[in-house]
Amino acid sequence: CDNMIETPPPNELLVDDAIKTTDDLQRLLNASYNEVANTFGGFSQMMSEMQSDNLASPNNNDLRELHSHNVLFFNSTCGGYYSILYRAIFRANFVQDNMDKVADLSQADKDRMTGEIKFIRGLCHFTAVRMFAHPYGYSAKNDHPGIAIVKAASTKPSPRLTVAEAYDAILSDLKDAETNLPESNGDYADKMSAKALLAHVYFQMGKYTDAATYASSVIDSKKYTLSDTVNVFSSDASSEHIFKIVSTGINDKRSGGYSDNYSPGNPTCQMSRELWANLNVDLAIDKRLKLLTVVNAGAQNEFVKSEMFNAPFFNVPVLHLTQMHLIRAEALAKSGGDLTTATADINAIITRAYTDNSKVVASGSTAQQIIDATRVQRRIELLFQGDRTPEIKRLGAVESQNIFVRGHRWDCPGFLLQFPITEKTTIFEINPTGGCN
Predict the structure, then answer these.
(1) Is 384 helix (H, G, I), strand (E, B) or coil?
(2) pTM of the model
(3) CB-based contacts of 415: which residues, under 8 Å, 6+ apart?
(4) How would residue 435 be classed by pLDDT, with cut points 50, 70 and 90?
(5) Contacts with 222 (C-beta within 8 Å, 6 or more apart), sequence order
(6) For helices 43-51 and 76-97, what crossing angle results, to 10°?
(7) Which of 4, 104, 247, 379 has the CB geometry, 3.0–4.6 Å to 313, for a possible disulfide?
């Protein structure tokens, strides 16, 4: 009996035996990146797009709940989405909590890993708070319910913090990541990744001076250049990829969230007819619209599909230079910044996209004219990239716009994704049910 008690369970490895070297820690950190890749290789972006006015109603019951703004707590796709975000966070935290067990860990590696952990946490928490909570600016003090912020590896229930507390934690993590990450880090997060994500966070908050500052830091680094192609998912656009999900082949196709849902003959994700009617007036001059195909034209079952994701596998840019130019252009115009730079930013996007100069923003344009032009281009440039729903919420909460999608106002309960019922505890209340009716 004594021997049985002292024998470890079969097929199990104790933490002290599993984590002894820097390489062991790196493998664990790669496991967190693996979850990030599974999430942001198109799946997270699709979940966001489904709530927006970019897509038609899908041929999938779980996704149709997102599209109709009535996600129930037993929606397995939504529950899986929530779980994978926090699984990435848990694995990153597990590395953090076990660093002291590794005797050969150099200070440089510890700093880098700390930066990567906090970048992953910031990215996943930011994604969760935008999808599962009302936006920053929804309440005067942002004291409305947010999400759980988890900064240690634990299986104990965590309380749902306010949106203000969530954003404070996200900013704290990303600023630490900015400090600790190296200038270059291969296919992993580096210093510019943190800066680019900070630009997004501040822009979502309506803190436009800070957003412009961080976007400028990325742009002015000259580390990235705008590509000539209008398809940011093309390998020809790699010069502007800041942080990307890497696919190495058919057996490691992390881009399946896009290709599996947008590219088949009758894809799950089809452009809404209303959006196509608004855009196709510029079909002759807008090169981006050439990446869209009308199928069964004129028939009752007509639909519009994207040709952006037809490659067998491809890298998925989560953060890229086009986003930075769009953020800086609007942020400068909103904050009383340099309008010459803002005009140059949006015109760099416009001149690449169109075959003539009819859309170019004139020198000396007002701040509002620049903002209007930038928002039009943002809608097309970031199509299918998961940007539209957070943008609707930003414009509603921060800009006080009265925006409706399929008859539902941006701040109705159904615009929130629903937490899985397993999250409901005495310290964590899930979102209201009943959609927007």
Answers:
(1) coil
(2) 0.95
(3) 51, 69, 134, 389, 393, 405, 408, 436
(4) confident
(5) none
(6) 140
(7) 247
